[in-house]
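Researcher: For the annotation table, I need structure tokens for Leucine-rich repeat domain-containing protein. Please keep the output clean. Sequence:
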Amino acid sequence: MGTTASMTRSRDKEILSQLTPYNQKMIIKYKKLCKFKALQIENDPEIIDFYFVDYLSGLNVVHFTDCQNISFEKTPTTIRYFQAQNCNIQNVEKIIQMQQLVYLDLSNNKITDISVIDTMSELISLILSNNQISDISHVASLVNLIELKLDNNLIEDINALKSLMNLGRVWLFNNKITNLEPLAQQMAIAADQSHHHRHGDHDHYDSNLEYFQLQPQNV
């Protein structure tokens, strides 16, 4: 028992030593943090990491805005809603640790490669506006997507969208798209499936696409 307690104290000290002085003060009473459900940080110049993740077992909502030094080396697997706007993010490889995400907003960053998101099958809402993305082929596997914002990127090909039968709202303005046929195919496939399954779950096969924006709205 004594050895276990000693190891726990040593581990706690190690975790705390890896935090910035500011975060050390915030986390010193970490036992209370396990009750936290949401975390919001704005305009923080310090490096934000999740080394204290083991004490945030209840955390499921994270919102960062204008935080330029976010480390994703270790992230809570319990997070369901994650937003990091204008945070100078370029690499999203570690994001896949958050496999329970249903909402992901990484708008206003410097992201070019989103190939890792193809395993995040729980996603319902994906917001990647104002980045530098050209290839969205890996979005095709996100069959639960209802909302997709890809405006202000470098996208030319939207073939990945034709397999997203649950997609209801799409933003694509300010890209390089010239062919909208994939969206027409998505609706045609859904209509055809509905025709052949009228005695089954009809609504399951209907296209849910109700909002599509290719041009920015006038303010």
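Researcher: And a one-line annotation?
Model: The longest strand covers residues 38-42.
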